Amino acid sequence: MRRLQRQACAGAAAAAAALGPNNAGAAAAQHFWSRPDLHPPIVRILHRAGRTAPGFLFIAPKRKTPQAGPMIFDNRGRLVWFRPLNTRGVSDFRMQWYRGRPVLTWWQARPTGIKTGRAFYVISDARYRQLAIVRPAHELPGDIHEFLLTRRGTALMTTVDSVRRGGRRVTEGGVQELDLRTGEVLLDWRSVSHVPLSESYAKAPRNRDLPYDYFHVNAIDVDTDGNLLVSARNTHAVYKLERRTGRILWRLGGKRSDYRLGRGVRFAWQHDARRQPDGTIRIFDNGAAPRVHTQTRIIFVHLDARTMRARLMRTIVHRPAIVAINQGNAQLLPKQHLLVGWGHEPQVTEYDRRGRVLLDLRFGSGADSYRAYRYQWVGRPIGRPSIGLHRGRVYVSWNGATTVARWQILGGSDPRALRPVETIARNGFESSAPAPRTPLVAVRALDRHGHRIGLSKPLRRA
Predict the structure, then answer these.
(1) Total number of domains constituting the chain
(2) Domain check: are 7 and 150 in the same one?
(3) Model-level pTM greater than 0.90?
(4) What is the tens place of the pLDDT at every residue in 300-329?
């Protein structure tokens, strides 16, 4: 066996772009000879200046992108896993824990063109197999904003419903907690029973039969005492709810804040309110739209329960300024790094504990992702590696596999007796090498210990 340890030629994997159809226009995408069915958006690294937190990056590109779906990639923008969906609606893709195991979860709308059915949440395992489909009870649709698995074996979900209040049609926001084992509804909180329409900053339609989205719930967090923090975009407020009864314990921000807001605290059209380990509350302050602030920022607010005052402790902004008119989040990482997904703007930034940029990137052209995350994820897909032949080269990939270190190129005339020709180092999602001059070609995946972990189907050379 002729064994060569070399860097595989992967230029065609990321450099070749393909244009795909989209109901909002065409956008550039990646192209792979071994997986011509995959067209994830191209990721451009704008700035990299230091050691980021470990792990891969998670987004769910949608809007102007040839294919929408959950996507994982590395710090160099190289694809790890992508699942194109039959819908333009995908959101909140992340890693969570389910029954003691790491899983992938996301929100998914009904298929494009289908007018019946409800949106739902997906739970998939490390082999990318679907474990569960979760829907809120009482025929409510799964809402795009939050699907949070808890240590109690429950799921916290944002919900929406259309009701009549004050002679008009109103879209109310809700929070539902569902026991995933029994299906029991532990909490079904509805905003119109607790928050009057007068708290909203959103302008009501003149036509009273058109829905008035006065609340717009967009985040749920479990507070340190087990109660819930709930963010409502259109009231510019964060609410603390008693988890068992749904009673509002306090309001932060908005027209009826229980806390007196210190200088720089007031936020608007916000997302992703989370309690931090140091006791502060972190908020993705969109500041638009309509625009209230000059730029979107992430703020850390200290609440003094004795004096009922809220004080601004820290602010993170992007340079040059970004105004995210909707969506967005931040994630606390090891060593107090902070990952920010800029929502409507297709950009992701990682900051160190001092606010210095360690990584800045953009994806797609006109795409967006509701949130962005970083996780240490190990994927072991079922099925085989995929290969393709093009102009005398063999291209190989294995969508979602994170433990492949090298590829062993095989050749021969008998599919049951193919022999190793050479071994190449894995280089990104798709690697390539000169195809052996044999009737049949296949590729075997090896892990870092040299163990065989996967074998492609053989291809016959033309």
Answers:
(1) 2
(2) no
(3) yes
(4) 999 999 999 999 999 999 999 999 999 999
